[in-house]
Design brief:
With 619 residues, the chain is of the alpha/beta class. The chain contains 19 helices and 27 strands. The protein is 36% helix and 23% strand. The strands form five sheets. It has an eight-stranded antiparallel sheet with strand order 3-2-4-1-10-9-11-15, covered by helices on one side. The protein has a seven-stranded antiparallel sheet with strand order 5-6-7-8-12-13-14. It has a five-stranded parallel sheet with strand order 19-18-20-21-22, sandwiched between helices. The longest helix is centred in the middle third of the chain and has 20 residues. The structure holds 2-deoxy-2-amino glucitol-6-phosphate (AGP). 2-deoxy-2-amino glucitol-6-phosphate binds next to helix 9.
Length: 619
Amino acid sequence: MCGIIGYAGKKVAAKVLINSLRRLEYRGYDSAGIAVLQDGSINFSKKAGKLHVLTDELKRFPLEGNIGAGHVRWATHGVPNEVNAHPHLDCTGKIAVVHNGIIENYQALKTMLIKEGHKFVSDTDTEVIPHLIEKYYKGYLLEAVRQAVKLLKGSYAICCLHASDRKRMVGARCDSPLIIGAGKNENFFASDAPAILDYTKNVIFLNNYEIAEISKNTIKIININGKTLSRKPTRIKWNISQAEKSGFKHFMLKEIFEQSNVVGDILKERLKNNKIHFEELAIKEKVFKGIKNMAIVACGTAYHAALTGKYMLEDLAEIPVWVDTSSEFRYRKPIVGKNTLVILISQSGETADTLHALREAKKRKAKTLAVCNVLGSSIAREADGVIYTHAGPEIAVASTKAYTAQLAILYLLTIYIGRIRGVISGKTKKKLLKEFKKIPRLLKLTLNDFKSNKNKIAEYAKNFRKYYLEKHNKSTFLYLARNINYPNALEGALKLKEISYITAEGYPAGEMKHGPIALIDENPWVVCIATKAKIYEKMLSNIQEIKARGGIIIAIATKGDKEIASQNVNYVVKVPEISELFSPILVAIPLQLLAYYVAREFGYDIDQPRNLAKSVTVE
Ligand code: AGP
């Protein structure tokens, strides 16, 4: 949901800003803009469309200056055109602001400012901010921003420039992420770490209601009352190659192929002498002993990981678990209290719905545990405890490696909690970990089977497109599975919808007969997850029911399964054998690749699908 960047240093600011915006583009890509301080005035350039439109413009009309701010937009208020693109300026043209978030009281502020004589040019909520700063500016930008943000309701991360201050810029945040990058003779503001990895790995995470001023050599942070705060930078482990495509055509494909290493690294980091380590967890063992039930709350793909977690935790740790989407949890009266552990799963750690669900859970006195990928993110910091997935930066909008990393952490957490609660014996733990340790190798094998075309999923995607066109664009997808792979059916459908714009639904296969079977004729393609399982035979019956009604089936089966061949399905992909409990991690791969190849067949922008943004920091 919009990415912002600020730079103060010795380099040509425009170049640094564009380079960083490239890494932020996954957060929003309907328009982009930069503003720089040059010879005592603000010069800016903004364009509707993707970032390359702006970079082309800057080639024709370059901007000089060593201090500036940039923005990539995901429109909320006002259509994505040039006027609504950021930066936004005040009446004098001396103040420029870029903003990520939503100012909920902007209408009231705008009315007040118009009465006071301010002139507005855009339809955005953001534009009230430069005008408010103008109202309070008495020669000191930091103080004017402090006064201005006191009036804002909603969420914001902002970077502000003033033409009269050639050396400094100011940033502030509330409920939208903003970090400071502390470099050598240069400092930054950024929405997230990958934006500044080319320049520094030392970051300071700003908290809500904090305001900061940076110049090339100084960083000053104050709170909303004007008190100066001292904050040390944290060194982040991510490296720049993780934020690059490294020869892959798309980030999504690269991230899919990273998954064996991601899970391997999780095991290396978390398992020492068969003991599970969650160093950063900060929740005492006795808390896990005392809890009576658990809720897992998340959105999108993370929600699907949460659903899988329910199967693991109820099965192995024998504790009642319910799962909710964050947007539902926060607006009803969830029955949680001091005996409940609420787990919030979020790749970005900034998803507004999940952040608010976390606050709701805390208000109700529940213990909260975040499972996040992004270090220092809001959810990670506000929860009572955190476990990082350490999957490295995930750039593609469609989440892949973060999902399998979340699953891996949930397996370990389940075993950890089960042990503490005395329901998993030492022997069972050993057995489970032995099985789990096979996964990185089996993931590699699975990925290699697709790479070497042993599993011909790219060909199936090609066939689907042909079929889709023959059927006058009418074909759809249905994903069916049972038990612990049911959430994977939802995830497969979500992946396809997100990047291929094809209607897809996920269902527990047993529910078919209660409605969805009415959809089956020769039209939908049905992905049946039919890996070896307790109720494998029931899945085979579902396959026959679909066949009998003319559906086209892609079965995901276990290597060595002879029975599937006799089912007469149209296509089969095989994954290596593993116990049913751990199979979701392997099954996720063909689902992700199917979505990827279908989108590629249709020629869609895979890493930046329409209408979406990576990190959903608005409600
Ligand atoms: C998944 O492919 C999505 N783009 C989306 O559903 C995502 O999982 C969701 O918005 C939650 O994000 P989070 O994990 O950063 O909280």
